[in-house]
Protein 1
Amino acid sequence: MADRNLYSRCCMFQAKGLFLGLILAGSFFFITTSSALADSNQVSSCCTLGGDVTGDGRVNIEDIMYLVYYTFSGGPAPTCFDAADVTGDSTSNITDIMYIVTYVFAGGPAPVCPTFSTGGASSDALIDSALTNGTIDYETSLIYRVYALYNDSRLPAIYRGDDSGIRENNVELEISRNWNQLSVATQDLVGPYVVNPIYEGSWLNQGVAGARSLDSLWCKPWKDTCSISPDWYYIDSNNGLVRVWYNRAFMATDEAKAIAVAAAIDNAIYPKLTGLMGKVPLSDAGFINNGGNGRMDITLMPGLTDVYGYTTSIPGILSTCTNFPPLIKVDRGLTGGILLATVTHEVMHAILFAFPAGCYFEQYAWMHEATATWSEHYVYPAFNSEHEYTWLYMYQTNWPLDWNPEKGSKKAGLFKYSTYLFFFYLQQISANFIPAIWNASTSPDPLSAIESGLQSAGGTNLEERWPEFALRNWNTAPFDQYKQWDNIKEKAYEYNIDVALNGASEGRFEIEKSEVNYLTARYTHFYFVDDDISFVSFVNGQMFDVSTATSSDGVWYYKAVARPAAETKGLKIQMLYKLSGQDWALRDVTDEANVIFCRDRLDGRVEELVFIFSNSSIDRDRSIKPADRNPLLYVSNTGCWEWSGEVKVVENGCEVTTLTANVDWTTLMSPIFNLRLGPLDEFAMLQTGIPFTPSSGVFSWKVSGGCGDCVVSGSKSWPVLGPEPNLMLVYPGAFGGPYHRGIDFGDLTPGLTATASEHVVCPDDTFDNPLWIISLNSNTEAPEGKIHLSADGKQITGSYDDGSGTVTTINLTAVRE
């Protein structure tokens, strides 16, 4: 063999003598020789000596001859491509030959091993980028992706990325589906890999990939009927449907694994998956190199990188999109639960190819992975192998369920697995949703299949299910069903906002991350870290067009106008709130213009608020975002539960009447108050003001003086007997204008159950005048009055003379329960 190689090289050298002569004579000319086939033979970063193409530890004419033969005559690829790529341009051509010639014969600079930076991207990402920018063509990209999958040294270093954590690779499936459209040269390069490795001529049975020329292989199983290598043994499942292959070199460990896999097929995997889905994988009976019969083949194989396993098919046998007999390859290095979970995952893939969506694999690829990952839980709920991917969906709930970014992105490769959570959620309602969805996969749109499947299996839809799914992803007690169901610890990512006034009287805290794309959810978490905050108002700028407005009474407020239904279809806003000493509670606030909390009272003392914005639409163009103003919290330090102190109204005239209320004024509002009233101007005061009424304490009445010849006198005190028919309004929600931090105080009219009497003494008569109603008109209003709210929001003090002789004096202090 050595002599024959030397002869070939000698002849090659004679044939290219003119070319080398020109180079040696100094006639340097450039010829572009790079092609898809030439590039396909490139090798990976294995260089120890630049220019040492033959790998003999020297750089001399032998290397030049070898490279000329490879470049111009289809000779064998260099054993180390990077040693030949001395110019570092990721290809081997005339420039590399000239560089080495100059070094060997003209004292030029020594060749060096090229170095590349991949920036941490995966190999697929690097290859896809090169395909996108035209550096390589499609068939070359397939070749390189196979090389990356099998860690083949022919992959140029510039495309060798960080493939850690990538658990599956669909390149073999893509090749099998497109086999008949590939060139013969490409088929011959990828063929040794895509066939079942049990056959003579596969990459495992011809030694190191690329070490033997194609012509030296006596059988090519990607095109010929070949024999199974005697190095491969098998275990059959008892159900007669599956054969598990393992290699003799690893018999000490892999025979037991094959037995375990076959037993799992019989006892758990097949019964559970085919029983639920109602279909079985298609048989490969009648096709060449099918493992010897129509059983589905599962091969425990060495040589994969971080890939756990994948499902493909025999090259060239796909006659229709639904004619897909599967071939499963699993990393032999897996053990225990991970091995069985991986087999489960791949068997589910094999079953799914029997559904109508086989005609639309590209569109359903994400749902394939989501369903197959979920099946790991369905068959082996205690293994929790699927938990490996949970974090990614929880971290990116703002990505649509079918999100598919740039091909080869590491997150893209994992995200589709993480969406198993949706099917996990559906299973808790009914596992029958899953086969119903796949039976509905008759169009290229998997989202329509989901909607149809939900309706056919349970009379429900995404509008109902998606908000609940979004809530479950929050995964915090008492809404921690994920933890209860499967010990899932991750929860959806939140945008966290600390709510504090930091000495100010009021503040606004906008939810800037509230835009929701189709089938996504966003979470914003408010923490109230300042006990000075008494009044909290959520302003719903997502469902309503919110603008600042002034009412006819002069109240500045947030005016909310409901948006057209077409703009908000699919939107759901769920508010989770935690009151002091209580568990979390849930409230649907989608249609509420605003929600008010009074934190001065225990039953309104919100400590945390979470808003979940979700969009159940399957319209990929539907992204719901605020039209004008972001949703926000408006907070104030103004007391909102109870005011305690003295209110005195004195009417000065010929008679002096004094009504004093030493009482507690308590709000009439509920601790959590909502408005669905829309933009009507007359409700501005309700949106911004809080009404208070006397609730306990003592009223005192006194009259003295007289008019004309009569003298009057009288007094009485009585306890407050319940809410009185008079109100005090405080405006913590008015963010500007004359009512900003203002007070309204109307008539002081205590209700009496017993009469008071004034004693009247006149020159001609003396009598007692019973009074059933005692009322004094105070007429203190925020825009005009001199009653002041202190900067800390906890004191109301001052006096007001209405100009007619009536003076109102207020001295109240806010009370916190």
Protein 2
Amino acid sequence: MLTIKSSEIVDLLPDAIVAVDGDGRVVHWSSAAEALLGYRSDEAIGRDYVALVVPPDRVQEQGLATQDVWQAGFAVYEAVRRRKDGSLVYVDITSRKGHLGGIEVVLSSEKDVTRLKVLRSTKLLRSRFGDLIESMPDAIVMADGTGHIVLVNRHAEEMFKYSPGALVGELLEVLLPQNVREGHVRHRSQYFAEPRVRSMGAGLDLRGRRADGSEFPVEISLSPLRTDEGVLVVSAIRDIADRRKAEQRFRGLLESAPDAIVIVDPAGSVVLVNTQTESLFGYSRDELLGKRIELLLPERYRGRHLAHRDGFFTDPRVRAMGAGSDLFGRRKDGTEFPVEISLSPIETEDGVLALSAIRDATARQEAERALRLSDESFRYLFYNSPLPMWVYDATTLKFVEVNELAIALYGYSRNEFLSMTLADVRLEGQSEGGRREETMNGSAEFIHVTDSRHRLKDGTVIDTEKFEHDIVFDGKSGRLALIIDVTEKKEIERQLIQSQKMEVVGQLTGGVAHDFNNILTIILGNVEALDEEGTFAADHKRRIEAIANATHRAANLTRQLLAFSRKQILRPRPTDVNDLVASTGDLLRRTLGEQIEVEAFLADDLWLTEVDTSQLQTTLINLCVNARDAMPEGGRLIVRTSNGVLGAACAARHPGVEVGDYVLLSVTDTGTGMAPEIARRAFEPFFTTKATGKGTGLGLSMVYGFIKQSKGHIELDSAAGSGTTVSIYLRRSAAAPVGATAGDASMPVPRGTERILVVEDNDDVRDNTVDQLASLGYQVVSASDGASALTAMESAAKAFDLLLTDVIMPGMGGRRLADEVNSRWPATRVLFMSGYSGDALILDDALEPGVDLLAKPFRKIDLAQAVRGVLDRSAGQ
């Protein structure tokens, strides 16, 4: 039996020395043990040795070795140990039974032999498998149970850019990006616990890391290899960067294809569609992926289509589908339409897929039916067609005949047309249509030519769609063209896209303004509190005023953002626009300067409109200042009012406009005007033609948002060098005009003594509001959410007089809280507060119409008047 005399001598030994008592607890841990296994002595002493460093799959093996030592007094064996960082090492262990401090222990000397074992495995494996792995097309990496690389082939070294032999002995994680290495150690341990053949990273973006730090996408398959040295894992690695690029190019080609493209597997499930498929059939991509292709066919065709599909996969080849028969597609809404389909097989790693190119054959079939009519019928249809038509020579492109509608649309007489060619009406520089015309000679198909732009006799440019077909006219070969003027359609599409874009930006700016309002509420409340103390020196007083002024300017900017996003709080009332223009006149003349001549033409008997008068005045000033900036050398500015009606035609051109009576307010200048591309973007937020620092780009977008929120309509008419007119249409009101409302900050601040419960999830806003109310004499209790507020209500000896609550809060929102309070404490009045507008909150179903709402940011007088108004109205009732 060996007895330890001096722990200092033990700690000088190069191998790790560990002593474990009869319960398996560590009683000694040398310095070399700390270096080998990563745990400090104070972390290891007293811990269960097996749980600390023995991998779970080696526990039984370690138990047998320990039992041998206790029974025989001595044992030598090889084992695997788990370090503190999770990595594994191979160790040679010599264990003896001995005594330490009067207790019987197992004393073990543990030597790191990982490198030796790796080199031994490498030598053995290279002799057995070297030629085999070098002949494989993939990169091959073999690793032992501790995750150390024991063998690689030349492909692996080249793929990961390591010199020969440099990878042997390294951990597998050296081949992975830094951010996934820690997680991979756990995955590796789990694999060795249950080794089997499988793919790694299926469905994931798996990446390798080269020696130079660059990364690339890979596919990996894993296989266990059982040897005398233990289980190894063989990784076959493939660089798929080129394949990813090819897939991206393939998807790009699909999206740019003019036809609807649908790809299905042998089971008939849709695996890929393009945008044209969504447009043609009315389904979204998500609604089609994974569904049966028969979904796109009328029900009467679905049964027999299964046989056709099976036949294609039995003999996959390029062919047309439905040749010689009427084939129809079925849209999501149930409507059917004739189609042409061509099928092509695609070879993939998962087997053969079928690519279907689908085209709406409605136009072609209609054209073919028309061309099958007799010459007399053709001439009748040609000259009495409801659409413009012409016939031209396919070689010279010279017009041969035109109908009356073509003459009326283009403005040329018949004789003028017959002396011209297609080049005379086609917009200069547009040659695509010409190429199509040249390549269509001899074709029996009806060609649909889109996106052609033509110039009329008066210079106007229109967008057209053309349907063309080869015909024989008066015994000569020619080409028949049917023309559709789609200018208005294109304009509506452009306006819709613009509206959607501005709606997205509006939602973003509205959210920013809402959060900013909370910040401004805190700043404004604290500035007012400091100002009320009145004990500051003059320079400090000036600084406080500067902060207050900056806060008010920030609040104005927030209102601009809310105006654009249509979430500002509006206070509409019956308004005489003539009175507003007249009262703004002096201010405008002072603002615009003497170089601008201002004239007003105000209509007699002008209708009233329901609008926020203050915002409309700000809008008028904005428009006039913009007009002044467009006349740097001076000029004439005209403000007009009139009554008018917006009819169905206007409503059709401008989505969202309602038919009815409107009050018109327009501002016209004689300035520089705008080019069409500038005018189209004039109402976009942050768009400006002014120099940096000379404008925010919010002026006209604020006007646009205010008018739209007021359910009005706005138009801009401008041309470079010819000035600009902005016309605002406001809905007519039958109510009588009302005077201005009170609310001046110079008025006495109303006070009170009632009991108020303040509910606000923002700590700073809540504390500021409580302080302001307390300074006004009220008895105030606060809560951070709806649940806490109900607890406060239940524990109060007497019901609160007023609940002042934020609308949007986590958990129970303000509306739910108010409903609960109204049902249980009906005498308690409710006042809401929010950084959003009442209209926006009502639209989002967060509030009901007609509730009392205090807008953030608010001044102390705003808070005092709102609270007093609700309480006094309650007392009056």
Protein 3
Amino acid sequence: MYTGPTMPFQGVLSMRKLALWFSSSLCVAAILCGCGPGNGSGSGSTPKAPTANVGGPYTGKTETALSFSGNGSSDPQGEALTYAWNFGDKTTGTGVSPSHTYTAPGTYTVSLTVTDTSNLTATASTTATVAAQPPVANAGGPYTGGIGAVIYFSGNGSSDPQGETLAYAWNFGDGTTGTGISPSHAYTAGGTYTVSLTVTDTSNLTATASTTATIAGLSPAANAGGPYTGGIGTIISFSGSKSNDPRGETLTYAWNFGDGTTGTGVSPTHAYTALGTYTVSLTVTDTSNLTATASTTVSIKASTININGLVSGGKSPISGATIALYAAGNVSNGSTATAVPTFLAPVVTDSNGNFDITSDYTCVNASDQMYLVATGGSPDSASSANNAALELMAALGPCDQLSSTPFVTLNEVTTVASAWALSQFLSPGGNVGATPNNVQGLANAVITANNLVNIATGASPGAAVPANVKVSTSKLNMLANALASCVNSVGGADCSSLLAAATAGGVTPSNTLDAALNIARNPASNVGSIYTLATANTVFQSALAAAPPDWMLYATLTGGGLDGNQVAAIAVDSGGNVWVSTYFNYIAKFSPNGTPATATGFTGSGINESYGIALDASDDVWITNRETSPNSGSGDVTELNSSGQPLTGANGITVGGIDYPVAVATDTNGNVWIADNDHSHVTLLNSAGTAISPSTGFGVGYVSLPLSIAVDANHNAWVGNSGGSPTITRISSDGSQVVNLVCCDEEIVGIAIDQTNNLWTVNYDNNSISQIKDISTTTPSIGGSFKGGGGLDFPSGIAVDGAGNVWVTNFHGASPSLTELAGSNAASPGTFLSPTTGFGSDASMQEPYGVAVDASGNLWVSNTGNDSVTELIGAAVPVRTPLVGPVQLP
């Protein structure tokens, strides 16, 4: 009966006592039944001994702690172990992982005894091999001295851990050696030497350490020249030629121009952009790496001018004309010029037409192209009637050269010369300007203007025109006579006829300078009316007995390697220099004013039958030579540098499948594409003249007797074929993809690619020009075939100008000429813009072969028939030169 909360616990205790009794009874029974020790593994069995694991064998060095491990030891009963170590060098240790440092090298027997809590033991042994510590080398230094000076070296910082004696071996870095703890040595040449010390102890252990010995030689002497002076933009030539090295070693030259820019070489050039005095330093270094530095100064000062001059009309003085001096603009072609702001009072011509500008202007930029404009005034000193339509101009040249221009005449001749030469940079109102990237083109245009006229006398030709250059003076004087009809009228009463005759494109000029510009821009308009005005005012001598076919002005160049050599292709470099190939072994080069680079041209290096010429972005010249002996008579390619020196061997380049090469083009990757006529394929070279194409060339089976080649904006080559049906072949930039396009007409002798990815071909046999549109797409289309106009007569050469207009030379015809067609941007592409006789038919061209556009807007034509070059002045919109890939604006 439940009487309280303790009852369950009492019951539990009783059950536990019963279990203990039952367990004890079983044990007694087990003993009585013979299940005691020796017959089982119960609590009465004998314990087993532990197992010792000493690890190892061990290796180490003297004086360095060596770690031992007994972790592999164990006890079968799982009892705790104690560890007793004997390291074999009369020292002992305890613990499962002791460490020990040996003081002497040798091989030691290491033993480990483990003991469990039942006092059972086990022992295991291994070895510890201890090597001696190597010595420590210390070479001291770094050391310094001079040539021939005794330097004392020290190895005192070296040591041996065992205290053994050391031997010292030195290498002084100049091929000599030494011994001992403190040797001495003298060097015979300047420089920095690596000195090494190897120490060896009596146990034959070694150690090496290095340091340097810097020996000051006889330093070079630097001389920066100077002091130098110049103006903003003036190219200053520096000279370190007086620097020297006492041992005759070669020097390198490092310049700091003091304005944040640097240069190299013995005679670098530099132009400063701001006024001031700059410290220029030159550091020279010889082959022993010894240096010296010298400094000098350069003063960039404002230039002043002093110009006297005369304004005349029809050789009569113009009184009361206002004189303005301008610096050409630098924003765009025809951009607003900068009027000189520092005149204290207007400069006006006196009763004799004279004017004087004295130190009233300082050059902002030395290279600024300067020009004078005279407006208004009267040719009758007795009359006060002002001729508001009178505007005359003279192109002067770079600002920093004005001091060498003491006298300037402004008249109709200087105005015509300026308007034609600068027509692509001149806008109505007398503004001359160029894009920032075409400073060279504008400068060259001014040079051309000064070929046409002597600005000191106001007469044509120019004072410095080369002897091999003949300018169209008679035609220029006729134009000047036409202007004189207005200039010489009192109050402008007789100007209406000139202004009407100069009207073109719906634009009527308001003054004589704008009239000249209108005629220059539209040379085929109102030719008869202008001629009638000119013949009525024969102030300037002219031999034109009849109206010319157009009013283009021109110059003819001969010599320089052209004479008798059958002129062929033509190209223009970045400086405006003109390069011409010939059939008979010569390459000619002319400066922008027509001066030949050499009297006889450049020859050699495989040049022969040179039908093609192209320039790369570095102004290197690539020439295709159709038949030359080194390549079994199959031709080669020659590369010249910008100075005309050959960069190829005596036999030219013959790799990559070159075989009767006739045409060449360069791309913006630096590669050179060559049309091989005889074996009907294309060769591709890199800029070093190494073949990219295989020995069989590219385009085999597609190209057929090619005569022309051009490269598009995607680096694809387009090849004009003359064999079979008329086709043009497109070859990918790596030659892996070739496609033929059936197009054009027979014998595609010329190809040009414009700025908008359209291609134009010259079809010689069919007297036509073809357009292929959208060549950057996978499916170009035929734009049209154009013939029967503009003087087209067996077209040969082709070029596209900066406006996209197409210019073509006509190889045959009674009066060989150029044809101009409207470009791809026009409302009607392919429209003939030239008259029925073509342009320049009075320029004495004979069999005009090639044509190129320069950055001044001049057209350059090579004449096979009379071995000359014709320059049609200011006729086209400027392009970037050299032509690499498609045409681009400068």
Protein 4
Amino acid sequence: MSNTLSDFALRHLAKIVESSDDAIVSKDLNGVIQSWNAAAERMFGYTAEEAIGKSIRMIIPADRQGEEDFILVQLRAGRAVQGYETVRQRKDGSLIPISLTVSPLRDTNGAIIGASKTARDISERKQGDLAARRLAALIESSDDAIVSKDLNGIVTSWNRAAERMFGYAASEIIGRSIRTIIPDDLQTEEDMVLGRIRAGVSVEHYETRRRRRDGSEILISLTVSPIIDETGTVVGASKIARDVTDRARLRALAAEQAMVSQKLSEVGSLVASSLDRSTVVQKVTEAATALTGAEFGAFFSNVHDPRTGDAYRLHTLSGAPKERFARLPHPRVTALLAPTFHGQGIVRLDDVTRDPRYGQNPPYHGMPEGHLPVRSYLAVPVTGASGDVLGGLFFGHSRPGVFTAIHEQLATGVAGWASLALENARLYTEAREADRLKDEFLAVLSHELRTPLNAIVGYARLLRGNMLSGEKAARGLETLERNAAALTQIVEDVLDVSRIISGKIRLDVQPVEVPLVVHNAVATVQPAADAKAVRLQTIIDRRVGPVSGDPDRLQQVVWNLLANAVKFTPKHGRVQVRVERVNSHIDIVVSDTGVGIRPEFLPHVFERFRQADAGTTRRTGGLGLGLSIVRHIIEMHGGSVQAASDGEGKGATFRVRLPSMIVQPQDVREPREHPRTEKLAPLTGLGDLSGVRVLAVDDEEDALGLLRVVLETAGAEVVTMASPSEALTRVGSIAPDVLVVDLGMPEMDGFGFISEIRRADDASIRDIPAAALTAFARSDDRTRALKSGFEMHLSKPVDPGELVASVATLVRRSPKRR
């Protein structure tokens, strides 16, 4: 056979080279490319025409040029380079990992004339290796246990997380059965898992228990997948185990919380169904007893008895008849019960009989005879919105260790609902009581207003019809004046209450001689006492010094107390007023032998609108405001007022206590005389308003008529108008010296009217002095009237003499009169 290849063999070899998936290149000993197959074109991007005749170094990265020198040295020495892994550069500049095999080429004489190079693209292998390394790193760094086993359950791999989770080192467990970590009662799970794996079916997120090396158990979520070889045959399984102990605990806790919320919501709906206190508390006690699993539960309400100290009354009981407690004493603030009744916190005991506080309060050393058997004990305080303790919920069971933290939470939630329900019930009761008192007050007010109005209307019609003459006419006029004064006093009382509520009552503070105030008040009520043959006695302590206060308001207080005493004392009774010094205080004591005060009403005697006898059959009049006003005025003076009575028919005593002045005022030559609240003297004359022109504006015809009569009687020229708009139009032509304007009118009120007057361009109109005569008598109304442009504010009803004097004063201020 010839030593040279035949043409057929050469063509066959060329075909193999061209069809190879590996790049096959030949080069001379200078590295110049001699041949370049199709695979080389695909691998490096150069065509054969571009590569042949060029140096092989064109595909070698700059940082790897030394490799070519090394390969050429090996070739010249006749040594091949096999499986050399390196990187080459494509035409587009990208790099490609290759496995390089270089063999020397010899001529017919055996001399080395070049080399053949076979390059294989190992990108996928490199990527596979990288992926494998990454996968291995992930497995080792995973927080989940990743384990593999064969189809017999023998462990073949065991990562670090598995070591931490189950306590076995890889060297201890690999080669052993996975059943080592499966609890005895769950061994059948492994049969089920292997059965599914052999069938090529995965097991996903299966929650179960596994046993650690120390014998403890953990909850895991298990995912098992089949391992399949190149032929598609299942050869084993990979298992991922995640510790879900905390998650399971949190899930259980969430479920418990959801259950708690649901139960408390049910309790909320339950207690919202009623506003009756007893019904609400009974429902709460029964619901809480059921939720806590107690054999019995009870609610004890806080009751303060000033005679016996704190006491706690059994309000409701669940799980046992009330008769079981009927003969037992009320609970006391013992060491065990104090935290609950004082609102200091929750008490939960697995066994109350083992608590050091148990049975340490004589006369009982343990459970009182007949008491329900208690071992497990749970007590929760029920506090109101203001923090005061309304009572306590108590739960018991005859077995120890029954109540858990969840029961404690449930009981606390129920106590919150109980607090809300009790507050709602209290507010509802108070609202109903306030509504009742309001209706009662309106009825009383209607009665008190209509009574004097009845006399006023009756006598007015008789006098207008000339049906009374002489002494009867004089008595009728006196009745009219007296009842008008009564109506004025009613209005003043209502206004005083309004000022008190709004905090706008004012005091004119100065040194006040209390005996003088008392004498003036006694003089005012003396006629009423004489009419009933009531003996009015005054006792003054000579050591009494002055107090700091408002003489008018203090006289109002004493007058009110004396008037009440006379009103509620029957004929031939006795009323005594004493003024005495007690240490650093001055006491004013008003006592009577009258009808007295019922014990149940005594705590409410100073409340607004409260009257012990408020029905249609009541024996005395009044609005029930006087004593409320008294208390507020005295408290504004830094004092106090108290009421005492031994009961109905046994009289009453009111004690006002005021602080004495620390520094005595200097003596003055002329003794000061405090104003008196006495009956007005008969009107004998009016001032002179001759030559004075008055414009009166009021929408009420009767009010205008009275103004005209009074002012014309005093000699004034009076123009009256019912329309403020018309008055503004004609004021220039009328040219009044004084304006008298009502504040409350339709279309335009008095404030708007005076505002237009004060903005007038004509100074003779703009500067007309004006008085506001109105039924709006609050201090705010007076202040607003003066700020809006009026010089005076006169409250209805106004005394005719005061009206004339006020107009005369305004005339002197008029620019036309200067």
